[in-house]
Design goal:
single chain; alpha+beta; two-stranded antiparallel sheet; two-stranded antiparallel ribbon; extended
Length: 177
Amino acid sequence: MSSELLQYNQAPELYLHSLTSAWRRDRIRHGSHWHARDPEAAAKMLRNPTIAHAVNHRTSLAAGRDWALIPRNPSHPRAALAVAIGTELIGGIRKFTEARRKLARACFHGERYSLIHEALRPLAIGDGTVRNWYVPTRLEDQHGYRYQKIVDDPYAESPKAHWQRWEILGPHGGQWV
């Protein structure tokens, strides 16, 4: 009986093929279209132990446990100072790895975005001088349906786009959804 569970399953491949071909034909407008049609689709796919292991492994790699900042131009005179400041700021964000893991698993839960919460704090970062820094404190998970990417002119030589955030008032009034 256990060998039947570990046999090759073609269903995920067929589903992935049909989803990507529909995406290429521009029939799916939103990345979580399949999730809207079948909210249990992710749970169904993750029941397969091979798929579940691959997804968990890749999200762990994407989220990371330790972060190392690398300057774009290491020979720049302020590269070391910028790396020290960035490392200290990332270290101060609460549950940073957990938020990164949620963003990495977004392909199975629909599109996800994070709202960055910031605060003004006096910190001695880098050169030791105390200054007021506007620093990120935590990342709040946001659902992708609240955001829409709007292309200004798709036929332009170099098209530009901007993000629009939708705020919808709930049915009970006074509550944003």
